[in-house]
Amino acid sequence: xxxxxxxxxxxxxxxxxxxxxxxxxxxxxxxxxxxxxxxxxxxxxxxxxxxxxxxxxxxxxxxxxxxxxxxxxxxxxxxxxxxxxxxxxxxxxxxxxxxxxxxxxxxxxxxxxxxxxxxxxxxxxxxxxxxxxxxxxxxxxxxxxxxxxxxxxxxxxxxxxxxxxxxxxxxxxxxxxxxxxxxxxxxxxxxx
Length: 192
What we know:
Layout: H1 3-16, H2 20-42, H3 45-61, H4 72-95, H5 120-139, H6 142-153, H7 158-165, H8 169-191
Helix pairs in contact: 1-2, 2-3, 2-4, 3-4, 4-7, 5-8, 6-7, 6-8, 7-8
């Protein structure tokens, strides 16, 4: 067992015993990673913050169900991803009656480029590509979106994705594969 995993297991045992300070340590250690996942899935800072808060509330309420042999980070990812999926389903039902916007009208955050002085055409291309990726992510199923984000943004292994989403390894692998195929198909004209 790694040192980090041992300290996490100790912290979880302390949380299960009612130690609020130990819970605060877990919150501090995992908040940023959970926010990144939630933001990438919901594309909304306020929704991501809500999901993270709900994740920690649920984790605390369900702390007795956590099994020490599991990874606390994976457990928290699973709660957060499920929260995102629930939120996206509610949003989809709510927005179902609204007329969809033209893809050019939808705004998305622009990725920051590493270069300190990129050419204007590169900035425009980057913004357009970022918008295209965001649009494709929105069209993926909630499981495909979660699998894609966990694999390609959070760099989780197939096993980690499977645990986070409550899927078998083969189902997690298929979800990532389907998401990548859809992303490639949508981005194919840009690759030329």
